[in-house]
UniProtKB/TrEMBL annotation:
Family, per entry: Belongs to the glycosyl hydrolase 1 family.
Lineage: Eukaryota, Viridiplantae, Streptophyta, Embryophyta, Tracheophyta
Gene3D superfamilies noted in UniProt: Glycosidases (3.20.20.80)
Keyword Hydrolase: yes
Membrane-crossing residue ranges in chain numbering: none
GO biological process: carbohydrate metabolic process
GO molecular function terms noted in the UniProt entry: coniferin beta-glucosidase activity
Annotated signal sequence range: none
Protein name, entry field: Beta-glucosidase
Pfam annotation, one family: Glyco_hydro_1
Length: 724
């Protein structure tokens, strides 16, 4: 319960944990169910749900009842499939009414490699030269055990899908340890070696589960060593998961050893695909070394492995089920130094940035788990390595937040809006291994300004829905230039900026601006280089209708915006168009005082109709007005924007009434907006399929004190701006 409170204090919304198989079935299917074990996990699940934390359950994380090893050799026997199916059924039945995410196995490639090839994990089976064990055959047993694990996974999936999924509504998958392998050179041989390395690790399990067969590279190299699936098994294997779990920490260089001679080492044997693995290339590490050998920091690997799995497995939903940074618990380590874990913060920020890039490029990633909430027992490393966001004193078991835990908590609270959580909940999860959804701009703790500056340079854009728009924004007068070019008429800012005594501080104007009118293709390339998927710009009303509805349509203006829209779409950039960004044809001001007259409604409706008709077949997002509250305030209250209407004490203008005109102008703008919306909805929306809105200046107002009068004042401030 104490640890659930720690999770809740961090703001996580999910927790990935594994069930101890031997706590549920001490003797496997050969003994009774341990009801105390069932009760423990029921209490854990209920405790999580009471705190709003989603349980994400792994059925076995490399552990199994010793009884199965003693009776029949555990995963070396097909009986293991029956035992696992029986155990999984009990778990689905006991907990599935509250568990929506199930994982069958964690890192089975490691389980068979270390348990049956190198012999460094139980049951410690191996043969020389892979290891020095009493029993085992490193050239055969890894493939027998993997085969039984794959079929045990499928047995559990079959039970869940046929007996429980329809009523419980959950999903089931498997978790693989996913290194990224970089070819050490651009040679074809090394590139093929990198692919073989994936085939002998990730694809070894995923290909049978998804495609019903082992990777071709394994079949070609191993031949009869590789077990075969029966016809019935192949039928069950097809699409045997709902999601792929990815444990990713680091990357390696890979060199071909099939067509070239290699020194003996990791990956070089036939059983491993003839691909030497190294953290260095010509003495240069693949990424910043850490205190843990072979755990270099290479964030690019996160994007690359996710993209690889997306492409190979047709973008099956993915969840990053482990990612984290370990440091050594050295004899001279002080608690203070372990708590101030700046390198862990840098690591998490870098890998999340890379993950966000993969998502932005289309990878269907639905969650991220950091390893780990707490320092813990790390297999053969015992308690010498610490991965936790919380430090654990192993004598007292006291938990203390590290700097990374504080960073994480601040990150979540700052960058995952609570009122958006329900929208994202089915797509994105936040938690530990522990599932933490963090694809936003990393937030640093206040004491680590260096990390904050580094984080601010990153492009973490993607912890939003898959159709979220990321872009840049501009307006016609501020960008285009092209003053009176190709038939454009004068607008209100053209006249105002040339008028002596205006309020432009440096005496400049937008006649040229940034010459976007002539250089827009160059600027589209800039957007594309940033990776944005949308661009918000405004149309110059006077470029389309130099005289409003009292003159002809300027076809050169139509052509310019058609070219701009087409250019954006060619680069995969969504046009997001504002009809007027505080500018309008000067003709309307000269004829009837623009927004002070109801005639302005008719002019805007006419202009909007032309735009919908001319561009709407390619535009899905329309904005009628940009910041009308600012337009009427500065144009008709203080007089510092055109048409420069005001009265004292608000400003010193030749014309205007600051107490009346802002409300008349706002009224006409609101009705003009409605007129345009009506045109769009009745004439175009059904066939064009777009949407239409308005943009407000969304300043936030804080009451200066907790007094009722100041709180009411803050609400009035909103009423006289946004709510207006």
């Amino acid at each position: 319960m104490e640890d659930i409170d720690l999770m809740h204090s961090l703001g996580v919304n999910s927790y990935r944990f594994s069930i101890s198989w031997a706590r549920i079935l001490p003797k496997g299917r050969f003994g009774e169910i341990n009801e105390a074990g069932i009760k423990f996990y029921n209490n854990l699940i209920d405790g999580l749900l009471l705190k709003g934390i989603e349980p994400f359950v792994t059925l076995t994380h490399m552990d199994f009842p010793q009884e199965l090893e003693d009776r029949y050799g555990s995963w070396l026997s097909p009986e293991s499939q029956e035992d696992f199916a029986y155990y999984a059924d009990i778990c689905f039945k006991s907990f599935g009414d509250r568990v929506k995410y199930w994982v069958t196995f964690n890192e089975p490639s490691f389980q068979v490699k270390f348990g049956y090839q190198a012999g460094t994990f139980p049951p410690s089976r191996c043969s020389k030269p892979f290891g020095n064990c009493t029993y085992g055959d490193s050239e055969k047993e890894p493939f027998i055990t993997a085969h039984n694990i794959i079929l045990a996974h499928i047995a559990a999936v079959h039970i869940y899908r046929t007996k429980y999924q329809a009523t419980q509504g959950g999903s089931i998958g498997i978790v693989l340890h996913c290194f990224w392998y970089e070819p050490i050179s651009n040679s074809v041989a090394d590139k093929l070696a990198a692919e073989r390395a994936q085939s002998f690790s990730i694809n070894w399990f995923l290909d049978p589960i998804i495609f019903g067969r082992y990777p071709q590279e394994m079949q070609d190299i191993l031949g009869s060593i590789l077990p075969e699936f029966s016809t019935t098994e192949k039928q069950k294997l097809n699409k045997g998961l709902d999601f792929i779990g990815i444990n990713h920490y680091t990357s390696y260089y890979v060199q071909d050893c099939m067509f070239s001679a290699c020194e003996p080492g990791p990956g070089t044997s036939k059983m491993e695909g003839y691909c030497a693995q190294s953290s260095q290339k010509n003495g240069t590490p693949i990424g910043e070394p850490t205190e843990l050998a072979g755990k270099n920091v290479y964030p690019q690997g996160m994007e690359k492995i996710v993209t690889y799995l997306k492409d190979r497995y047709h973008n099956v939903p993915m969840i990053i089920t482990e990612n984290g940074y370990g440091d050594m618990n050295k004899p001279n380590s002080t608690t203070e130094s372990l708590l101030h874990d700046v390198e862990r913060i840098k690591y998490l920020a870098g890998y999340l940035d890379a993950l966000s890039t993969a998502i932005r490029k289309g990878a269907d990633v639905r969650g991220y788990f950091v390893w780990s909430l707490l320092d813990n027992f790390e297999w053969n490393s015992g308690y010498t390595i610490r991965f936790g966001l919380h430090h654990v004193d192993y004598e007292t078991l006291r938990r203390t937040p590290k700097s990374s835990g504080t960073w994480y908590r601040n990150f979540i609270s700052q960058h995952i809006a609570k009122d958006s959580m329900d929208i994202f909940m089915n797509k994105l999860y936040i938690g530990f291994f522990f599932l933490l959804q963090i694809f936003f701009l990393p937030h640093s703790i206040s004491s680590d300004q260096l990390i904050l500056r580094q984080s601010l340079k990153r492009k973490n854009l993607s912890a939003f829905p898959s159709n979220f728009l990321f872009g840049t924004a501009s307006s016609a007068y501020q960008y285009e230039g092209g003053y009176l070019a190709d038939g454009k008429g004068l607008n209100n800012w053209d006249v105002y900026s040339h008028k002596p005594g205006n309020n432009i501080v440096d005496g400049s104007n937008g006649d040229i601006a940034v010459d976007y009118y002539h250089r827009y293709l160059e600027d589209i390339d800039l957007m594309h280089s940033l990776g944005v998927n949308s661009y918000r710009f405004s149309i110059s009303w006077a470029r389309i209708l130099p005289k409003g509805r009292f003159g002809e349509i300027n076809e050169a203006g139509i052509k310019f915006y058609n070219n701009l829209i087409d250019g954006l779409l060619l680069k995969g950039i969504e046009p997001f168009i504002t009809l007027t960004h505080i500018d309008f044809p000067q003709e309307l001001e000269d004829r009837y005082g623009s927004w002070l007259s109801p005639e302005s409604q008719e002019d805007f409706e006419y202009y909007a109709d032309i735009c919908f008709k001319s561009f709407g077949d390619r535009v899905n997002y329309w904005v009628t007005f940009n910041q009308p509250d600012s337009q009427v305030k500065f144009g008709y209250l203080t007089g510092i924007f055109p048409p420069s209407h005001c009265s004292k004490p608000f400003g010193n203008c030749t014309y205007g009434d600051s107490e009346k005109e802002p409300f008349i102008a706002a009224h006409n703008i609101i009705l003009a907006h409605i007129a345009a919306v009506h045109v769009y909805r009745t004439k175009y929306q059904e066939t064009q399929g777009g949407s239409i809105g308005i943009v407000l200046n969304g300043a936030w107002y804080e009451p200066i004190s907790n007094s009722l009068v100041d709180k009411l004042a803050a609400e009035r401030a909103r009423s006289f701006t946004i709510n207006w």
